[in-house]
Amino acid sequence: MRKEEEIRQEIFSKISEIYTIREQTKQSFIPGTSSLPYAGRVYDEKELISLVDSSLDFWLTSGRYTEKFEKDLAAFLGIHHCLLTNSGSSANLLAVSALTSKKLGKKRMHAGDEVITTACGFPTTLNPILQNNLVPVFLDVEKGTYNIQADRIEEAISEKTKAIIIPHTLGNPADLDTILKIVEKFDLWFIEDNCDALGSKYKGKFTGTFGHISTCSFYPAHHITMGEGGAVLTDDPLLKKIIASFRDWGRDCWCDPGCDNSCKKRFDWKLGDLPHGYDHKYIYSHIGYNLKVTDMQAAIGIEQLKKLPEFIERRKENFNILFHGLKKYKEYLVLPRPTPHSDPSWFGFPILVRDDALFTRDDILHCLEANKIATRMLFGGNLIKQPAYSEMIYRSVGPLVNTDLVMNNLFWIGVYPGLTSEMCNYILAVFDAFFSNQRG
After folding, report:
1. In DSSP terms, which residues pair with 376 in a beta bridge?
2. Claim to verify: residue 111 and residue 230 sit in the same structural domain
């Protein structure tokens, strides 16, 4: 009989053939005809082989690939603990929920406590605050970086303030020096929403390693992908255990899937009002969820992670091509600026149309979209004005002038690794034609 490994290798060889055929038949870029997405998957036969390898095991929940990815990502970032979950949104939910755990004692967050954040960005940075019955406190963002105005955080703090949760907007790190000083001074929790910034650095250190907890997203638009997927990261072993509990049904047990009695006292616990010896696998210390990832997703992520350094460099290269090509239009456009001391792994290229320009954001958007160049808003703009939050209880410190400016005047275009220099130069040519028509 043929050995299983021989058959697997034959399958992998055929997968490589399929990938090669697809690449050979892929249409070349045709300016004005081919669509230029703002983001997308960049992969080769290695991801396909890894995915099929995992599927042949038919281990449908977290397994060997999940364990390896968690170790590899933690090692890449230089952080102790990584826990995979099914999305970046779930990662944010787990991060905030973890801080409500009774296991944190006096540091635990309670309903009605305040969390400082911004109203400018993606809803699932805000949603976990509301879902845990906490009160968001909104600050405006800086023009150019579109990150929280860190120098105003201290004035937003009240006796109810317990945490700060901020995104690194479009890959641009926030002012972490200022934030960390405030976190230490007032003994606050700090969560980094690093979903759009994997690979960004601040003072030579990766973002996602500064907070008590940080989060990542592996949706296809992000720096690496596993289709759907996310991660929660921390250096704190207690927080790691709490996060795992919330992710895995709220259980007190920390056994990996398929394992029993890691604690060596499975039938010797006495917790809550349960009888002594109640099976530890069915003791629940939190009101949790099932937000695990599948091993098939992690299998893709392992190969994507190997490509991450190259992806980061290509994002930077594309960003620089666009920046140098558009800086001649600074009279009309506010171009992005990196936060001091930062080295962004850009998620996108934000462009703000000045109020006194002779055209509007819509004018540029229509031009770009008509020429097959995809554009995006800065997610929800001013979230306070979204219909979902019409009944939200919140506090706002100062007017959100720049947040409204982002909502009304800003859009962004892609820099993802699937864009070649030829494509970026085509984007610039479309901008040149637009401005030529405006001047004409």
Report:
1. 412
2. yes
The residues near 267 (Cβ < 8 Å, ≥ 6 apart) are 277, 278, 279, 280
Q: Is the model's pLDDT at 52 over the cut of 70?
A: yes
User: Which are the contacts of 235, defined by CB distance < 8 A and separation ≥ 6?
Assistant: 79, 80, 81, 209
The verdict on pTM exceeding 0.70 is yes
Active-site annotation, residues: 222
Q: Measuring CA to CA, which residue among 336, 36, 322, 44 is closest to residue 169?
A: 336
Mean pLDDT of the chain: 96
The tokens describing 150, both together, are 């860190």
3-state SS record for 87-141: CHHHHHHHHHHHCCCHHHHHHCCCCCCEEEEECECCHHHHHHHHHCCCEEEEECE
Measured distance CA(126)–CA(253) in Å, rounded: 30
Question: Could you tell me if 172 and 321 lie in one domain?
Answer: no
The predicted-structure confidence for 292-346, as pLDDT tens digits, reads as follows: 999 999 999 999 999 999 999 999 999 999 999 999 999 999 999 999 999 999 9
Task: Look at residue 440 in the predicted model and tell me its pLDDT.
Answer: 60
> Residue 227 has which token pair?
């289709």
In a domain, 77, yes or no: yes
- What residues contact residue 9 under an 8 Å CB cut-off, 6+ apart? none
How many folded domains does the chain comprise? 2
Residue 1: what pLDDT?
58
CB 151 within 8 A of CB 413: no
Q: Are residues 341 and 388 in the same domain?
A: yes
Domain boundary among 296, 324, 358: 296
Residues 266 and 403 reside in one and the same domain: no
Q: Are residues 61 and 158 in the same domain?
A: yes
SS3 193: strand
Q: Are residues 223 and 77 in the same domain?
A: yes
Domain that holds residue 263: 52-296
pLDDT tier for residue 24 given thresholds of 50, 70 and 90:
very high
Are the CB atoms for 162 and 133 separated by under 8 Å? Answer: no
User: Residue 257 — pLDDT band, cuts 50, 70, 90?
Assistant: low
Which pLDDT belongs to residue 264? 77
Q: Which two tokens stand for residue 280?
A: 């530890």
pLDDT at 91: 98
